[in-house]
UniProtKB/TrEMBL annotation:
It holds the Pfam family Sugar_tr. Its main location: membrane. It catalyses: D-mannose(out) = D-mannose(in); D-fructose(out) = D-fructose(in); D-galactose(in) = D-galactose(out); D-xylose(out) = D-xylose(in). Residues 1-308 form the Major facilitator superfamily (MFS) profile domain. Coiled coil: none annotated. The chain crosses the membrane at residues 119-143, 155-179, 186-208, 214-246, 283-304. Homodimer. PROSITE patterns: MFS. This is Hexose transporter 1. GO terms for molecular function: hexose transmembrane transporter activity.
Amino acid sequence: KKKKKKKKKKKKHAIPCFIQLFFWKWFPESPKWVMQKSVPPELEQEKEKEARKILRWLRECDNVDIDICLIKEAMKNEPRPDKQPNNATSEPVTIEKEPLLESDEVLEDKRMKRIVRKAIIISITLQILQQLSGINSVFYYSSDTFDSAGLKNSLQQWVAIVAVCVANFLAVFVAVVLMDRSGRRMLLFLSLSGMVVSSILLSIGLYFKNQSHAWGYLCVVFMVFYVIFFEFGLGYLFCPIPWLIVSEITPSSHRGKIMSAASGANWISNLLIAQFANTVVDYVYYVPFAIVCGLGILFVAWYVPETKEKSDVQIQNELAK
């Protein structure tokens, strides 16, 4: 019976995938990608018209001149593999200018490498941090955790799981409001700090579970706060900052590869949590997750830039430092 239930669940999980496959034709291209396409000179205006059309649909307004200007400004600061400089120019190049031009190219190349390197480190680390914070140990094994906390009754476990899921859902709306008010870094600090405290308290509750039945109910409260703080910064739904920052800090010329690497890191970390989290919680509770979140605070403080209300050029200048 259990195997049949698992098979039914797997089939249900496939439904969103089929829905996405059905609607992919209507997904618009990235306006920046459209602007960067290599086309013949006579089609340059058509390219910009297409980008404007997409932006009007996304912004739900007719005036998208500012967006187009920002895209053009960002493109000036990024390498264009499809447009290599032509050495055969009509103007003569003096011997004195050659080393200066070469030096500028080398400096620009070094600058871009520094930006890309930092973008890769930040993108992959935040994705790993999202998973190794232990959030999926809650969603995958919450019933086992509540059982070990002393909530043996199936009704008690059901109420506890519903409380966690409702808290997870409602916290998203608070995070959406705070996103552009407090900034990405502040929300990451808040999220990670809250998860450190919540996971330590949850570990204490699980350790003293046999001394009083009240500790079982406290574990539910601590887990609710754990999930709420997760959604404030590292969360999954409407405002996942790790994914948002990846798109904001990566140069469009390298975005596809970096996002693929970050996605791979996320799923590999998710696999590790799925395989070993239950065993870890049985032996050392949520202490390892508290340590990971603590290290995450240090990483954000040292390495992650604030991207709130900043253009691509400003963000890349900050990464180039």
